[in-house]
Amino acid sequence: MRKIIIAVVVLLAAHVALLLAGAGRGNASLARSGTTVGIVFDVGGRGDKSFNDGAYAGADSARRMLGVTVRYIEPGDGSDRESGLRLLAAEKMDLVMGVGFIFTDDLTNLAREYPNINFAGIDLSLAYDSTGKLIPPPPNLAALKFREEEGSFLVGSLAALVGHSKKVGFIGGMDIPLIHKFEAGYTAGVKYVCPDCTVIAQYAGVTPDAFKNPSRGKELALSQYQSGVNIIFHASGATGQGVFEAARAMHKLAIGVDADQYNDAPGYILTSMVKRVNAATFDVIRRAHEGQFHGGVYSFGLKEGGVGYVYDEHNKGLIPDSVHARVEAIKADIIAGKIKVPTTR
Question: How many structural domains comprise the chain?
Answer without folding.
Answer: 2
